[in-house]
Amino acid sequence: MATLEIDHLNKSYGTLRALKDMTFSVESGEIFGFVGSNGAGKTTTMRIALGVLRPDSGEVRWDGRPLDLQMRRRVGYMPEERGLYPKMKVAEQLTYLARLHGMSAADARTAVDHWTEVLGVAARRGDEVQKLSLGNQQRVQLAAALVHDPQVLVLDEPFSGLDPVAVDVMSGVLHERAAAGVPTVFSSHQLDLVERLCDRVGIVRGGEMVALGTIDELRTTDFSRWRVVAPDAPPGWADAIPDTTVLEVDGAATVIELTSAEAGAEQAILRAALAESPVREFTQVRPTLTDLFRHVVSADDAAAAAAEEKAA
Fold first, then answer.
1. pLDDT tens-digit map of 264-284
2. CA-to-CA distance for 86 and 91, rounded, in angstroms?
3. What stretch of H or E contains 187?
4. Which residues, including other chains, have CB under 8 Å from residue 299's CB and lie 6 or more apart?
5. Domain CATH code at residue 41
6. DSSP label at 115?
7. Nearest to 40, CA basis, from 284, 190, 203
8. What's this model's pTM, rounded to 2 decimal places?
9. Does one domain contain both 208 and 229?
10. Which of 90, 167, 216, 242 has the fewest beta carbons under 10 Å from its own?
11. Which of 279, 220, 215, 210 is nearest to 31 (CA)?
């Protein structure tokens, strides 16, 4: 397997600039989470990678070469909008799609049997898609992306509408494909799943990549944060501690950001807490991916509000 490269993609619709030098890569066997608000540019990027849209500039490469039509036949794509024929039977439809990707009739039937079994819809092979539950339709949609043994996976909201059991099944499939060396890009608003499944994550805002790295890299902040549980401490007990900012107070628990990088500076927080109360917990905390996403979105909203105010 090789690397999928998204290199400085730009795309505008009239005065709307949907992508601004969108750049990232996905290595062989890597699961890459692509997250952002609605309209941030995720689907546009995926559609350009699939050749559905043409960029104004920039390039998509596979193994160092432009991703041409022949290579795109080796990509497994799962759109956010279900793209299945509702009145067509499951096995018939999956076989048809596999044949479109160049598989023989026998190989297509074998692949359909395998993936419907793995994804838990083998008993529904003879049913029309429209008669399936939304969750089972989603499983069939993933089978359609996998049935031709793709070398790259591009999945737009693959976990939408799934129950926990189906989520576990799909998660297992993604890990199995990654172990086989298949690079996978998937977008999702279920950030707990992204945090759990992905090797690296890119956060998109306004058509730009604004944060990119492993979960550990993204969760590393300039200043350390500490959670203190001091049940007898009076309100505001931490407000006067030097080089700190109180971020959150929830009952007896207080989250404090330490703005000093000096070794052992956190001990000032502990001493201040012990002076007021027994301390039941004193632990360092790091932001979750959800926290990071909220920070990015709030920054976007603040910028938009500022621009609107300036225009007014």
1. 999 999 999 999 999 999 999
2. 13
3. strand 184-187
4. 205
5. 3.40.50.300
6. H
7. 203
8. 0.80
9. no
10. 216
11. 215
